[in-house]
Specification:
Largest interface: A-B, 44 and 46 residues
Radius of gyration of chain B: 22 Å
Radius of gyration of chain A: 25 Å
Oligomer: heterodimer
Strand order of the largest sheet of chain B: 1-4-5-3-2-6-7-8
Shape of chain B: elongated
Largest sheet of chain B: 8 strands, mixed
Number of strands of chain B: 14
Strand content of chain B: 25-35%
């Protein structure tokens, strides 16, 4: 599990190069012309798994929103593939309902009419050769009828177990083979495996058919405005970067709390758990963005290089038992409602050892971060839904006030709130009005929704558009995925060797062992 | 809440604003710019409404400068609206008498600190926006040639007086056409022999698109007339035939290309709020607009039929 040669080779940046070339060829495009948005070229989006929640609630509305904002090309076509006895109209109807209900931008009939002309459906199961041949002829017809130019993106919104079948079918039917001038891209969602070995296996399956730079791994967190703003905050400003290091930062807490339980995802969640579900991807990506060095440019290669560098410097605690904690929610009251415990959920075996809460302390072995612990925690059925990154600063080295004046003064903190209520909070000490000198913590708040649009694009809108344009900066590549598993695998192995996770009542902030983990370092979690 | 102040001063307006904000729990803390709207009583409603809608994307302090009865006594009336139509705050400033000539003295103390200033003339604009006292305080000056009686002459006037930061809503209206045209030429295209922009008479956006195409493509571009609505077609003559983007109904456009299937795309006309929101998105000088105006003044894109 420690061999190093398996990491993916450096991305040659082919896609970016092509993109630049076409821009310089087009005299109507000018980098100074900031009004003209990036618009995808002619293409077909083929989606597998169209009946899933994600497709209906996020992907279809995102496609409509892109069309509504004028970012899809003339003739854009959308093909669904599923084992349903449907005609094109039935699928268009499903898409219509999804768009009506979930689209972010106002519904316009003209936009929908125009979009629906390009909606097609192919019925069949994934092992049905004939269905894939039909799919192939369907997209080729679209090329002729609608001028989509032989450019296809395949969105695999399906369980990873079905990837091999679908990918092989794409190969067999010739769909994956880029014709002269056209491109092929494949889009996959997490989970990217459940450990290093399975992640590689999955990648081998994909890369047998698609070249590495045609594989787009969607981590929807990276499409969020606030997450992209971490880079702007750090590298476009002068006032943060000088204190963004061990000289000033005491520790960092990265939290992803959910108030919901596992809902209908029992089949997926059992055996996966909180660490594999969100820490390996979302939380480690956030850690990478917070801890990485400045990239030389804001392009895919430079960004990924820095992220990989810092992820490869992440170290687990020497004693995993002391530096990690895990828990399972038990029955309790969450948000005013009585809820089941994890082991009583439908589809979860009563002896399941899957954790619904995981916390770990990581170190980053670089000059910038030596000795600064990064505490990551993720859990379900916690008091509220919240994702944030908090940099907690050291106390002032000297306080020229009497001890009673500053009794209520805590540590300064800079908090990046990812969701909900996106924004940034700075906590610092301020004098309490009055005659006596008394210093107390106050918050200064920047809320995204207040300073910018109420309608900032959904993460999926941004990411789908980037796939269709072929712009890779926001997509993790295989090396990052593998580095994530390298960090997590020893913890999972250790947990597997132990007995059951600790219980915590639903609606509380996690198991006592997680608090003990912080207490050993004389620290405490931020209140949820 | 709405606060009416009659015969007042900027100091009193400030105080009323601060109090209103305290009572509302500070709803305007995230203001990103000050938007000055120079208008009159008959047009102010639509302009302020559009600006407030755009304010959802860009929370602003909106200062509507309304001149009334220039011959009467000097007087300043203010109507303050906080927390009603979304984020930000709106102040309608009605200036009577000679005060109307010194609107900048009222506006200057009311600009939100530290954030950029944009001035917008929704109707008739001064012939030199940058030289106008209310334009001089702003880093972005938005005019609308389409509101003028002779739109094309207005563009030529604006071209003469251009200062970095000037922009015009007729240019903003051209954005969706321009981005579709740019996307069209992203794919390999045949040699372009000449171009044509068809629109209803007196459509300044069409004049600008013609000049832009002529200048960027170094091409003979004719500005032709059609029945509308708005711009109806842009086409290029090529050795293989005609490449055309046409929109007869103001909603959906069709791209036709010799030897290829026709492709349709939604291309709707946008309302003023959307235009203002686009205008406020970027506040640096629009160099492409400047070049296009210059080209228009030099006669590019106006070749005779």
């Amino acid at each position: 599990m420690t061999d190093d040669e398996g990491l993916a080779p450096a991305n040659p940046g082919v896609i970016k190069g092509l993109h630049e070339m076409s821009e310089s060829r087009n005299p109507l495009r000018d980098p100074r012309d900031r009004r003209i948005p990036r618009v995808a070229g002619p293409c077909v989006l083929v989606m597998f798994g169209v009946t899933g929640d994600l497709a209906r609630k996020k992907l279809m509305p995102a496609i409509y929103d892109l069309a509504n904002r004028g970012l899809l090309p003339p003739g854009f076509s959308f093909v669904g593939f599923a084992r349903r006895d449907w005609e094109d109209e039935d699928f268009a109807q499903l898409t219509y309902r999804a768009v009506k209900e979930y689209a972010r931008t106002p519904f316009r009939d003209a936009v929908w009419q125009q979009l629906s002309e390009g909606v097609r459906f192919v019925s069949g199961s994934f092992d049905d050769d004939e269905a894939f041949d039909q799919l192939a002829s369907c997209v080729m017809r679209l090329d002729e009828e609608r001028g989509t130019g032989g450019n296809y993106a395949f969105y695999l919104s399906i369980p990873p177990g079905q990837f091999p079948t679908v990918v092989q079918q794409l190969k067999r039917s010739g769909l994956s083979d880029p014709s002269a001038g056209g491109w092929r891209r494949v889009v996959i969602e997490k989970p990217f495996g459940h450990d290093l070995a399975s992640a590689r296996e999955l990648n081998d399956i994909l890369e047998e058919v698609f070249p590495p730079d045609a594989v787009f791994r969607i981590d929807h967190y990276l499409g969020k405005e606030t997450v992209q703003n971490i880079l702007a905050l750090r590298f476009a400003n002068e006032m943060y970067e000088p204190i963004w290091n061990r000289g000033y930062v005491d520790h960092v807490q990265i939290t992803m709390a959910e108030d919901i339980g596992i809902g209908g995802r029992a089949g997926y969640y059992d055996g996966i758990g909180a660490a594999r579900d969100v820490i390996q991807n979302h939380l480690l990506q956030l850690l990478a963005l917070v801890a990485m060095e400045e990239p030389v440019a804001f392009d895919a290669d430079s960004l990924r290089m820095e992220k990989e560098k810092v992820l490869s410097a992440v170290r687990l605690p020497a004693d995993i038992a002391e530096g990690t904690a895990r828990g399972q929610y038990s029955a309790g009251w969450q948000g005013g409602r009585q809820v089941h415990g994890f082991l009583e959920e439908d589809g979860i075996p009563p002896d399941s050892r899957t954790e619904t809460y995981a916390a770990l302390r990581l170190g980053v072995d670089t000059r910038r971060w030596a000795g600064v612990p990064f505490y990551l925690r993720a859990g379900k059925r916690l008091p509220r839904r919240m994702t944030e990154i908090a940099l907690i600063f050291q106390r002032a080295p000297h306080l020229p006030f009497s001890a009673t004046d500053t009794e209520e003064l805590g540590q300064n903190a800079l908090v990046i709130r990812i969701q909900p209520d996106e924004g940034i909070t700075v906590r610092f000490g301020s004098k309490v009005p009055g005659t006596a000198m008394e210093v107390r913590d106050v918050n200064m708040d920047f809320a995204y929704g207040e300073s910018f649009t109420e309608s900032s694009p959904e993460a999926y809108e941004r990411l789908l558009l980037d796939v269709l344009i072929g712009d890779p900066p926001l997509f993790p590549r295989q090396a990052e995925v593998e580095l994530g598993w390298r960090i997590l695998d020893p913890v999972e192995d250790f947990w597997a060797s132990r007995t059951k996770p600790d219980q915590y009542p639903a609606g509380t902030a996690g198991p006592p062992s997680a608090d003990a983990l912080m207490a050993r370092d004389n620290r405490a979690w931020r209140r949820l | 809440m709405t606060i009416d102040l009659t015969d007042t001063s900027t100091g009193a307006i400030h105080e009323a604003l601060t109090q209103a904000r305290r009572r509302m729990g500070g709803p305007a803390s995230g203001t990103v710019l000050t938007l000055i709207i120079v208008t009159d009583e008959s047009e102010q409603y639509d302009a302020v409404r559009a600006a407030s809608q755009a304010g959802r994307e860009h929370p602003s302090r909106i200062l509507a400068v309304i001149t009334r009865r220039p011959k009467g006594e000097s007087r300043l009336d203010a109507e303050i609206r906080v927390g009603e139509t979304g984020p930000g705050e709106t102040i309608l400033l009605r200036m009577y008498g000679p005060l109307g000539q010194h609107a900048d003295s009222v506006v200057a103390p009311l600009l939100a600190p530290d954030v950029p200033v944009v001035t917008w003339w929704p109707d008739e604009a001064p012939s030199a926006p940058g030289g106008d006292p209310l334009g001089a305080v702003a880093q972005r000056r938005v005019t609308d040639a389409a509101a003028s009686e002779t739109p094309k002459d207005m563009l030529l006037t604006l071209a003469k007086a251009y200062k970095p930061g000037d922009t015009d809503l007729s240019w903003t209206r051209a954005t969706s056409w321009r981005s579709l045209l740019a996307a069209t030429l992203d794919q390999p295209y045949p040699e372009l022999l000449r171009g044509e922009v068809l629109a209803e008479p007196g459509n300044p956006s069409a004049d600008l698109i013609a000049a832009w195409l002529g200048q960027r493509l170094d091409l003979d571009v004719r500005r032709g007339e059609s029945g509308g609505p708005g711009i109806t077609e842009v086409n290029f003559e090529t050795p293989d035939g005609k490449v055309a983007l046409s929109r007869p109904d103001g909603r959906n456009a069709t791209l036709s290309w010799p030897g290829r299937p026709e492709r349709r795309v939604a291309l709707h006309r946008r309302d003023t709020a959307e235009l203002v929101a686009e205008e406020l998105r970027r506040l640096e000088p629009d160099e492409v607009y400047a070049e296009t105006l210059r080209a228009l003044a030099a006669g590019v894109g106006s070749s005779a039929p």
